[in-house]
Design brief:
Shape: flat
Strand content: under 5%
Helix content: 55-70%
Radius of gyration: 26 Å
Distance between the termini: 64 Å
Order of helices and strands: HHHHHHHHH
Number of helices: 9
Number of domains: 1
Largest sheet: none
């Protein structure tokens, strides 16, 4: 249970897709002019990551890793299909994005029109592919952790685009210098938010490190020095 909680908060705050590794910046900058559209795209990203990361975990565990095909028989134990990872991951992502696009167009035409080309472009959003690749590189052990990582990474991206959209709506009424209006001030605010999110880096590290014992040699040396100081004081007196 602890590892699920730790992974959840770490993926949202410490390893945030936008502020830690700067993935998905294209959609983050283009669709963050209004809170409503930012919420819609953020929800779509959460859904896609929540589905694709576990699916790609299953593909990686039972198809792509070296020796993953052993369940088909011992003669398949030496097969290595890891070179197909990118193709398989992108195919899974594209399928889910197509499903999201159909659902959004059916039930929310106004949101579909607001998102425009950026809704189908979720398929090539590097944050979406990054979620599956990070899942693979970090060797997430169970399907439950993969689901957790997908949802929490999506929530982190959602919070990032929601925060910048809220700030950009307020900035419209601020006296921003002419050369910095638009993307200029957005980049500055994003950098400051990234620095702010770095402060979460120590959130889950307290108490993790074991207390190291002081080497006996150091203790002996310190004792000898103390005795020597006392002897010198006696001599002086």
């Amino acid at each position: 249970m602890i590892e699920h909680i730790e992974l959840f908060f770490k993926s949202i705050f410490i390893d945030n897709m936008v502020f830690a590794v700067f993935l998905g910046m294209c959609s983050y900058l283009a669709v963050s002019k209004k809170v409503a559209t930012a919420v819609g795209l953020g929800a779509a990203v959460i859904f896609v990551l929540a589905i694709t990361v576990p699916l790609n975990w299953l593909l990686d565990q039972y198809l792509l890793q070296p020796g993953a095909l052993v369940w088909l028989g011992s003669e398949f134990a030496e097969y290595d299909l890891s070179f197909l990872s990118f193709i398989m991951f992108i195919a899974t992502i594209a399928t889910m994005v197509q499903l999201v696009e159909i659902v959004v167009e059916k039930f929310s035409p106004s949101l579909y029109n607001s998102l425009g080309i950026f809704l189908p472009l979720i398929a090539v959003n590097c944050a979406i592919l990054g979620g599956s690749l990070f899942m693979q590189s970090r060797e997430i052990e169970t399907l439950g952790l993969a689901v957790n990582y997908g949802i929490s990474s999506g929530i982190g991206w959602f919070l990032a685009i929601l925060a910048i959209a809220s700030i950009r709506e307020k900035i419209r009424y601020s006296n921003v210098p002419g050369p910095l209006r638009g993307l200029g001030i957005t980049f500055i605010v994003t950098g400051l938010m990234g620095i702010g999110f770095l402060s979460f880096g120590g959130m889950l590290t307290g108490g993790d490190e074991e207390v190291k014992e002081v080497p006996k040699e150091v203790v002996v040396d310190a004792t000898d020095i103390k005795k020597e100081i006392e002897n010198q004081k006696k001599i002086v007196n």
